[in-house]
């Protein structure tokens, strides 16, 4: 019941899901490999993501059972479903040796990690749907002593309800001072195909070039000046209509500003749990997809007059790999006679034999 997503900006640290160490539905261990380790930030930075069932506490028992085989944990966070005055002033102390709190503290001791207070200490992490129920702190962050002593390491509880997306838990934002410079995300400017920006870009280029048709270059200097104006026209149009985009394999070409606004509006009004906002989002997505593909089909059928370009089978494809047929001695059958003899001997090996 845990999911761990790794931002592509961290690919440089070669993240690894350590299912070879722990394979449990309520826990996941991810290792980041830092090329320049330092005190508090080891070469293998292990992050443990936990969901603790409030009734069975299964993951706490499992982690205690395999604690000796676990690597050194640098950071651990998750929904522990355990209330105590150590992190929640409105809760009561659990002093019984067999209480879930004491079992959790024993686990922290075994893993050599300790609880970390957030910057906005005392802020509840769970907001129940029932207004009469008490808000509590059950989402915790624990870390190694070396990481806690690192300057710049801290976390806070996000209190903006729009960021909860309808969940009853508030997100935790943890900042870890990674050694060296932050990996640079390569961005490039781009104009989406079939977009309004592409039409405006082409229109501006055509207009600027059309105003240059009367210029006649009688010398190399005049020609160089004209080419400079052409280059400037392309550069200005590109800067005006292109946008800096971060590469994403999940991006959709038909996504437009209307989709972005509908998505933000849904987030500000309860997220997907708000049926009205969810239906509005779906309607906006359908309209954006229809507009995009209708324009693409019109361009193929009317402008390029090559409707078959829409079909994937018109593109170049690789031939399937095949193996040569070998005879009984392992030699390739390069001639028709050799091929016939090999097939004949294979499928008629029992010909004329007595039964």
TrEMBL record:
Q: Which GO terms describe its molecular function?
A: catalytic activity
A single Pfam family it belongs to is Exo_endo_phos_2
Domain Endonuclease/exonuclease/phosphatase residues, every copy: 46-171
Species assigned in the record:
Agaricus bisporus var. burnettii (strain JB137-S8 / ATCC MYA-4627 / FGSC 10392) (White button mushroom)
- The name under which this protein is listed is Endonuclease/exonuclease/phosphatase domain-containing protein
Against InterPro entries, the record matches this protein to: Endo/exonu/phosph_ase_sf (IPR036691), Endo/exonuclease/phosphatase (IPR005135)
